[in-house]
């Protein structure tokens, strides 16, 4: 009964967010100020202000719909610690809403940090699993590292402009050095929260958390907060050309790096996690152009990405729910006869729609939003911008790589055939049950409609959102992106047909970044920790122990002198007096 009440509260709050977005749609942009606050010196006053505009409405709709789908889906998915899970997901949603409606940098920071704390607790929901505990700790530490820069950036910009109110930033003059420093520090926090290079490794390791949590983090909250922040402060960032250049470099490196890692991952959720990192980088690349077209394209892609990525993670959750693992090496045993495709038709169709949208197949939402980014980059490059050309080439290359890993995942999960069962390629050594008998697939089926309804809704969004902005299609760009998708899909199909799979060591180990971080950061920290322990134990502790031991020995010696024999005391006194007399005589002579 208590669990049901918590679920009702969670679903109700998410629907309330959607209703709020609907009510605010079309309302004139306005700011609401609360008089309670604190003065930090001079005219700088911290208050808790709220803001309503088109961006607020858009993000509230995205957050509310995805959160509602996740909450409903969780009714059929989550079985352990339901009350705490629902409370944390609801708080997570509320924190993102706070970030969206905030018109003050410190109010935004509160929501920003609460999201980080909730993500730590939700990723570690299955705390009895070691990988869940380590993934949660890694996410917490890496995002907190970025948030240190974020906090300092808030102070630099707020004190530089003389206000912490977001809508008033840029109204007063500020030196270019202060502006660049403040925006770069904010960018550090954005890089950490949105898992961009070099703080990208926490997101794929956050996959041990429940799949609905993965959908919420990857689709509508937390990682999307970085994109939202730059879009909210776009006028400030566009005034800092150096910061936009750094953002473009980080985004271009990240999108290609993450796409290459996704090409070799053998777990469905890990493929999708790297895909999220790559797609977020595409949004950041669009924002780095510094144009209104780039901002519009980034927000368009953010909206469509929320639909198809939320859908894909919920579909991955169905696979985990029914099969017990989302790793290719296990799924392959269920797909030699196309069992998953035939036994779970709704899951197959909806996941196909999600992957098609992610890959940029014409007609799906991802196709239109990705084309918008490419077109914005082309328009910027055509004007002679080197940055525009770098972004354009990077996004086009990433589009081909995205099509590759989408087709690869789709074929290996749903289309394993008997003819290919003997050609296991690189998976043979990784599958501990490769020689086991074919499992019983008669019990495989689509889950209840409580879990399927969110899939269907998000699948509709993965198609229909592409037309919500009006059908604006640049046929030249569309032709190029379609050819790129085909160039990425054909090698994946060819490799699957031969039973092979591209898993070079450098890709399988994700370029060894985690190992490098361990050697560069973890090993020295452990060494210094051991040195500190040794110094405390063997140096400082030795002096403390020696002082204590000296006192003990002295007390033991004095105790032995206390024999209770008066003759002994008298003899000692006489001896002492004689010794003092002799000493006085020696000194006097």
Kindly state the percentage of residues in helix: over 70%
Q: Number of DSSP strands?
A: 2
Radius of gyration: 31 Å
Counting structural domains, the number is: 3
Q: Which strand order spans the largest sheet, edge to edge or round the barrel?
A: 1-2
Structural class: mainly alpha
Q: Report on the biggest sheet.
A: 2 strands, antiparallel
Principal-axes geometry comes out as elongated
| Uncertain residue segments | 418-437
Helix segment tally? 22
Give the integer mean of the pLDDT values. 85
Alpha carbon gap, first and last residue: 100 Å
Series of H and E elements: HEEHHHHHHHHHHHHHHHHHHHHH
User: Roughly what fraction of the amino acids lie in strands?
Assistant: under 5%
Structural summary, described in words:
- It is a multi-pass membrane protein.
- It holds the Pfam family Proton_antipo_M.
- Residues 102-380 form the NADH:quinone oxidoreductase/Mrp antiporter transmembrane domain.
- Keywords: Membrane, Transmembrane, Transmembrane helix.
- The chain has 3 domains: 1-239, no CATH class; 241-505, no CATH class; 517-588.
- Strands 1-2 form a two-stranded antiparallel ribbon.
- A hairpin with a 2-residue loop joins β1 and β2.
- The chain has 589 residues and is mainly α.
- α12 (292-323) packs antiparallel against α18.
- It has helices at residues 2-24, 54-77, 82-101, 105-123, 130-161, 176-193, 211-219, 223-232, 234-238, 241-264, 268-288, 292-323, 328-334, 339-343, 345-359, 365-382, 386-414, 449-468, 475-497, 505-508, 513-561, 566-588; strands spanning 30-41, 44-52.
């Amino acid at each position: 009964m208590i669990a049901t009440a918590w679920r009702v509260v969670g679903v109700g709050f998410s629907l309330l967010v959607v209703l709020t977005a609907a009510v605010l749609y079309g309302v004139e942009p306005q700011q609401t100020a609360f008089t309670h606050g604190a003065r930090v010196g001079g005219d700088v006053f911290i208050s808790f202000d709220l803001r309503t505009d088109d961006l607020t409405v858009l993000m509230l709709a995205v957050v509310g719909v995805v959160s509602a789908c996740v909450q409903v889906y969780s009714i059929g998915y989550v079985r352990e610690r339901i009350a705490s899970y629902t409370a944390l997901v609801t708080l997570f949603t509320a924190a993102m809403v706070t970030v969206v409606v905030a018109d003050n940098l410190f109010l935004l920071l509160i929501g920003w940090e609460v999201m980080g704390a909730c993500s730590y607790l939700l990723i570690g929901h299955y705390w009895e699993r070691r990988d869940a505990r380590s993934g949660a700790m890694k996410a917490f530490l890496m995002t907190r590292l970025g948030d240190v820069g974020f906090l300092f950036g808030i102070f630099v910009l707020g004190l530089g402009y003389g206000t912490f109110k977001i809508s008033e930033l840029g109204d007063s003059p500020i030196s270019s050095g202060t502006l660049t420093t403040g925006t770069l520090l904010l960018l550090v926090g954005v890089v950490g929260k949105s898992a961009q290079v070099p703080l990208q490794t926490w997101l794929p390791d956050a996959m041990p958390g429940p799949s609905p949590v993965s959908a919420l983090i990857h689709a509508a909250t937390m990682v999307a907060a970085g994109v939202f922040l730059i879009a909210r402060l776009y006028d400030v960032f566009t005034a800092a050309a150096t910061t936009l250049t750094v953002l473009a470099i980080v985004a271009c490196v990240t999108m290609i790096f993450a796409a290459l890692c996704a090409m070799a991952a053998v777990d469905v959720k890990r493929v999708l996690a790297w895909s999220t990192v790559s797609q977020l980088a595409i949004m950041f690349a669009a924002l780095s152009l510094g144009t209104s077209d780039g901002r519009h394209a980034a927000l368009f892609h953010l909206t469509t990405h929320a639909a198809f990525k939320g859908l894909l993670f919920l579909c991955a959750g169905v696979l985990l729910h029914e099969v017990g693992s989302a790793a290719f090496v296990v799924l392959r045993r269920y797909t030699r006869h196309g069992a998953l495709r035939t036994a779970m038709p709704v899951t197959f169709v909806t996941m196909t729609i999600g992957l098609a949208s992610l890959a940029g197949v014409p007609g799906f939402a991802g196709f239109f939003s990705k084309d918008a980014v490419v077109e914005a980059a082309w328009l910027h490059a055509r004007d002679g911008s080197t940055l525009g050309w770098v972004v354009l080439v990077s996004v086009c290359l990433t589009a081909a790589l995205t099509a590759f890993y989408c087709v690869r995942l789709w074929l290996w999960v749903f289309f394993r055939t008997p003819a290919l069962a003997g050609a296991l390629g690189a998976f043979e050594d990784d599958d501990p049950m490769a020689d086991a008998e074919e499992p019983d697939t008669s019990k495989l089926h689509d889950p209840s409609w409580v879990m399927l309804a969110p899939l269907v809704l998000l699948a509709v969004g993965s198609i229909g959102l592409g037309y919500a902005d009006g059908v604006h299609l640049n046929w030249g760009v569309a032709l190029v992106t379609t050819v790129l998708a085909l160039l990425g899909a054909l090698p994946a199909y060819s490799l699957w047909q031969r039973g092979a799979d591209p898993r070079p060591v450098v890709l399988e180990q994700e370029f060894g970044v985690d190992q490098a971080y361990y050697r560069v950061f973890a090993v020295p920290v452990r060494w210094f920790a051991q040195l500190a322990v040794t110094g405390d134990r063997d140096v400082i502790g030795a002096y403390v122990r020696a002082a204590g031991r000296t006192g003990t020995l002295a007390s033991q010696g004095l105790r032995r002198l206390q024999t209770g024999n008066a003759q002994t005391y008298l003899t000692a006194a006489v001896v002492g007096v004689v010794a003092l007399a002799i000493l006085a005589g020696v000194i006097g002579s």
